[in-house]
Amino acid sequence: MAENAFLTDRRRDYLAGEYDGSDSAERHLKYSLRESSELALSELVEVAESPLIDNTEVFDPDEVFRLLRALLSPRQEDLEPDEFVTIVEPEKYGDEFVAYADALYVQMDKVMKPYRDSRFPDPGSD
Predict the structure, then answer these.
(1) Which member of 19, 63, 88, 120 has the greatest number of CB atoms within 10 A?
(2) What is the top-level taxon of the source organism (predicted)?
(3) How buried is residue 5: exposed, middle or buried, by Cβ count under 10 Å (0-12/13-18/19+)?
């Protein structure tokens, strides 16, 4: 198994809510996590777009599912591994999160629609 790419023990503690450093150190840690995450995502896209990489050997569908679920679900600690928050209400989760989830869904639909239409044609379109 490979070493952690950018999640040090300290960063993992922070993500688990177990960080007890100073406020300024916490702000720096949060900033560096955002920066590292953006870079890591950019690099993952680069790998996925490469014709030299077999994505079926690199990107496990269950892990991609976990990422998408985390991005589309409001933060709730009591979610089961396969559970979604199916109704996103602005008054409950905030307009900013709902707008983000909507934008992410629209982008995913752009990718999935051609796949869905080619794999599962509408039987009534004949």
Answers:
(1) 88
(2) Archaea
(3) exposed
Mean pLDDT of 111-126: 84
pLDDT, tens digit (0-9, with 9 covering 90-100), for 68-98:
888 887 766 555 655 666 566 777 778 888 8
In the prediction, which pLDDT does 92 show?
A: 77
Whole-number Å distance between alpha carbons of 46 and 119: 26
* pLDDT for res 112: 92
Alpha carbon separation from 120 to 5, 64, 66, 79, 117 (Å, rounded)? 38, 22, 24, 30, 5
DSSP string, 105-119: HHHHHHHHHHHHHHH
Integer Rg of the chain from CA: 18
Number of alpha carbons in the 13 Å side-chain half-sphere of residue 26: 10
Q: Provide the H-helix boundaries in 50-72.
A: 55-58, 61-72
Q: What is the pLDDT of residues 19-40, one digit of tens each?
A: 888 999 999 999 999 999 999 9
Contacts 24+ apart (CB under 8 A), 9-17: none
Amino acid letter at 39? L
